[in-house]
Design goal:
Length: 134
């Protein structure tokens, strides 16, 4: 089981499944939402993700049609995103998970959109868009 929450502690959640499709996303939307060079995101089955406190403390933003990102309305921590096209999955920002994560990232996506001051290092594959199969 994974546990996590926002910076101020008002939003708390649990995940009772493996995290899959973990990627480093370098698109401009993720960079802006994260306030960093990239966002590290993973997918979980919606039925295995639950808020244990503070779900009403979230605010959402529809970043692209049909996809909304949810943040703590007090501290601004990005928590999850949901897509109308994929209602059975929740995309979690890995930085808000407090327990050790067993799964590892599989790729860098939107690598050609990376910040000009960033160098992508390591052996993970880099894709111009989404990773194959998505």
């Amino acid at each position: 089981m994974y546990k996590g929450g926002c910076l101020c502690g008002k939003v708390r959640f649990e995940i009772t499944c493996k995290i899959h499709n973990i990627v480093y996303c370098h698109c401009s939307l993720c960079r802006k939402a994260q306030g960093s060079a990239f966002a590290t995101n993973g997918l979980v089955d919606a039925k295995h993700f639950k808020f244990v406190a503070g779900e009403n403390e979230l605010t959402g933003y529809e970043s692209t049609p049909g996809q909304s990102k949810y943040f703590c309305k007090h501290c601004g921590s990005p928590i999850i995103s949901k897509s109308v096209a994929n209602p059975n999955s929740v995309r979690i920002r890995l930085g808000v998970i407090e327990t050790d994560i067993d799964e590892k990232p599989i790729a860098h996506i939107f690598a050609t959109s990376k910040a000009n001051w960033e160098d992508i290092e390591g052996d993970l594959p880099q894709y111009e868009g989404y990773e194959p199969g998505r």
